[in-house]
Every structure is written in C-alpha cells, then in structure tokens.
Amino acid sequence: MKVDQYVMAYRVEQDRLRAMLPDGFTSLRPVLRINAELRTGEKETLYLEYNTPVEGFGKRGWLNIARWESPTTEISYTKHEKSTTFHLPFLEITYTGVGLVGGCPAEKDNDGCFYSNAFVPAEKIDGKKEYCNCSFCWKFAENNAHGISTDGKSIPAIPVEQIHQYEQQELTPENAAKIPCEQVLGAYVVTFER
After folding, report:
1. Rounded CA gap, 164 and 69, in Å?
2. What phi and psi values does residue 36 have, to the nearest 5 degrees?
3. Which residues on neighbouring strands pair with residue 38, listed in sequence order?
4. What pLDDT score does 107 carry?
5. Superfamily of structural domain 2-193
C-alpha cells in the first residue's frame, strides 16, 4: 500500500509528561507527537496516532498515547494546493509543504513504538521527507493545546531536569492534550510503500 505519512512534534512541559507515564517508563524529551497517515491500497484509510518519546524496558522509542483509524473513528481530510488538513471531532491539524527536504533527528534515537501490550520495532523509511509548516488544535475541551509553525524548520527538543512534582495522572489523549504547546518543533511529510 502507498502511505503518505505526516508527522508533527511540539514541545510541552516535561514534568507534566513525567506525571503521566506508566511505571517502567522515563521521559526522554519534552515532546508530544502526532502522526497522521493517508493509506491508499484496495481502499483508502486514514490513521492517526499520538505519542511521546520514552525509555523503557531497555529500549528507546515512542510510547503510544492513543491511535485512531477510519472507519472506526470519524476522520476525514482535505487537500488544497500544498496543504493537507486532517479533521477529527477532537483534533484539526494542517500540514503545508515548504519545498525543503531533510531528515528527522528523532529517528536516530528510536528503537520503535510501545503500544498497550506490544513493542513494534521502528519501520525503516527511505523516502525523502519534505519539511512542512503545521497548525493544530486539540478540541477535547476548551483551552486544549494548539500551535502553529511558520518557518518550516526542525528545532531540537532538549530534555530538562525535573523542577515540579505533579500528581500522577493517567496517560490519556484528553490529559495529554491539556498540556499547553510551548512551540511546534517541526513537521514533515514522507511518501513510501508499506
């Protein structure tokens, strides 16, 4: 199947992330990431996942917070020139290609993804990544995280020492979306065959 994968990361307060991680996991960077995929094969499906970088059980990778897929979840998209917007009842996110090609620094520190009961090794993707500007808005509740980038570049996310001790919360998309976006760190789109 052909996959158009759209990836965006944004910086948040790392101590808030630490307060949500399940036992056995350590936060690697103050980042939340949204991956959206337009999958074209016998039929077209849309897939979206929300995750954060962690170390756990001897591996470094992305801890999945939630994932949604059509037709089980109401997901649609629209395209306009260089922009693609994904629409969900609780999220709207737009990626706009800027014509620059590059890589993703987080890929060098990624063994794969942690899901509820499984670890899936990282998928090797050789396609060229086109940097994007990105805007997003979570809509689970009023004042959820939202942000916009305008320069089409990737900015590294540096881990920070713990300053605050927050009460433990469950790692859910609703709770993660409450953490304010401090800055959109980067976005790209890549097309490949899976």
Report:
1. 35
2. -125, 140
3. 4, 46
4. 61
5. Acetoacetate decarboxylase-like (2.40.400.10)
Given a contact cutoff of 8 angstroms between Cβ atoms, the answer to whether 138 and 177 are in contact is yes
Buried b vs exposed e over 115-141: b needs ≥16 C-beta within 10 Å? eeeeeeeeeebeeebbbbbbbbbbebe
Tens-place pLDDT, residues 90-140: 999 999 999 888 765 556 678 999 998 899 999 888 788 999 999 999 999
Q: Which amino acid, 55?
A: E
Tokens of 101: 């090609």
Nearest to 190 by CA among 106, 95, 114: 95
Give all strands (DSSP E) within 20-141, no chain letters.
25-27, 31-40, 44-56, 59-69, 76-80, 83-88, 91-102, 112-115, 118-121, 129-138
CA distance 40 to 45: 7
The domain segmentation of the chain, as residue ranges, is 2-193
Q: Is 122 helix (H, G, I), strand (E, B) or coil?
A: coil
Largest CA distance in the chain: 50
What DSSP assignment string belongs to 127-140?
SPEEEEEEEEEE-S
CB atoms within 10 A of CB 108: 7
